[in-house]
Amino acid sequence: MKRSEINAAIRWAEALCQQHHVTLPFFASLPAEKAEFHRPERINLLKTMLGWDVSDFGSGDFDRVGAVLFTVRNGCVHEPGVGTPYAEKYIFLKDGCEQEIPLHYHNSKTEDIINRAGGVFCCQLAAQGADGKPDLTQPVRVLRDGAYYDAAPGEIIEITTGNSITLEPGVYHRFFAKTGCGDLLIGEVSKINDDNTDNVFAIIRNRWCAIEEDEPPYRLLVNEY
Predict the structure, then answer these.
(1) Count of other CB atoms within 10 angstroms of residue 96
(2) Is 0.90 topped by the overall pTM?
(3) Maximum Cα–Cα distance for the chain, whole Å?
(4) 112, exposed or middle or buried, with CB in 10 Å at 0-12, 13-18, 19+?
(5) Residue 86, helix vs strand vs coil
(6) Over the stretch 31-68, which tens digit does the pLDDT of each residue have?
(7) Domain of residue 189, residue span
(8) Cβ–Cβ contacts within 10 Å for residue 79, how many?
(9) For burial by CB atoms within 10 Å, which of 78, 125, 181, 190 has the most?
């Protein structure tokens, strides 16, 4: 991705937060300088990768495959006791451009994905076959706000504001905003999040995007500290 695309995406996410009266913590607006994240009192920001995350997952087409994320709380799987024993994120998805987080599952993370504000959150589910690949012939049982729900093979579940879905390890899922319903602000509450090792994509993807530096950074990304 071009740095200008990343900068524009973060500014868009900030505006969406303002629209829905969501205030991000102080480190969301720190200057784009590594030294800010290496100060002794901010060691948890560095080790647990709190802050902005923009990726096209190696697609080269952010408006189709990509998302803006912001990690609010997290721990460190490699250093017990660092950070928190849970994670919290915001996920921002655009309406009208079919933008998605592509089909993937987690090896260890259980997560609640909550429609906090904006449009209608769409979540497509798939079981994991014996070969580890998506199996679109099998139903998937999940929790929707504490109630069991049996999703049909490959079903796309529509989740309105305030409602959520719980995704356990091994369940494939794909996220996007329903077209015509508005930009989407999603919340995620989960076990400790490790984006370096715990994402398994149905099609090989890069979790972190390569950056073309066509202008100075507006904010640093979590993988740049």
Answers:
(1) 13
(2) yes
(3) 52
(4) middle
(5) strand
(6) 999 999 999 999 999 999 999 999 999 999 999 999 99
(7) 3-224
(8) 10
(9) 125
* Model confidence pLDDT, tens digit, residues 165-183: 999 999 999 999 999 999 9
The CATH number covering residue 53 comes to 2.60.120.10
Extract the tokens encoding 21: 């009266």
Number of domains in the chain: 1
- What is the DSSP code string of 113-161? EEEEEES-EEEEEEEE-TTSSEETTS-EEEEETTEEEEEPTT-EEEE-T
Asked if residue 209 lies in contact with residue 54, where contact means CB atoms within 8 angstroms, the answer is yes
What CA–CA distance (Å, rounded) separates 197 from 73? 18
For residue 162, is pLDDT > 90? yes
Pairing label, strands 164-167, 83-93: unpaired
**CB-based contact 126:139 (threshold 8 Å):** no
Distance CA 162, CA 117 (A): 7
Structure-token pair, residue 159: 């989740």
